[in-house]
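hey m, so remember when u said the C-alpha cells were messed up on ur end? i reran from scratch. heres the input so u can diff it against urs
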Amino acid sequence: MKVAKRRRRESKTDYLARRNMLKSGKPRLVFRKTNKYITAQYIVSKEAQDEVKMGISSKNLMKYGWPKENVGGLKSLTASYFTGLLIGKMIQNKKLDTPLVDFGMLKTIHKNKLFAFIKGLKDSGLKIKCDEEALPEEGRLKGEHLKNKINFDEIKSKIEAI
C-alpha cells in the first residue's frame, strides 16, 4: 500500500496543482491567511526552487491609513482587498510579469477573502481572469457591514498613489 507524502497528508500541498503551475514557467502570487494577517508573496521558481521576489502582509496597511483601533480587522475582507491592491501596484511599478494566483489548499468559496484579494489585483490593473459573479459586492469591500467603519476611499487613494 502506498503512503501519501507527508505535506499531502497534512493538507498543506496539492502536488498536482503545484506541478502544473511550475510547468507553466510563470511566476506565482501566493495568497495565505494566518490567524492575524493576510500575506501575499510574488514567487519565481527555477528548477522547482522557489525564490520570493517580494512579499507583503496586511500589517503594511497601517502605513496607508488603516485605523489603529481596527488592528484586529487586518484579516478581514476589506484588508484582503487592500492587500491585493497594494501588491498589484507593487508588481506594476517594478514591471514584473503577470503571475498566476496560488491559493494552495484554501477553499475557494465565492465572495470570500480570496476573491476580495483577486478584486484588489484586478483594480490595480493586473490582467487576472475571474468570473465577476465570484467577486464580493462593493458594499462588503468598503466594510459597510462592520461596526467600526474604515475610511475606504482615503486608504484606496493612498495605495493608488504609489
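this time it looks ok to me. The chain has a mean pLDDT of 91. if urs says something different then somethings off w ur setup not the seq
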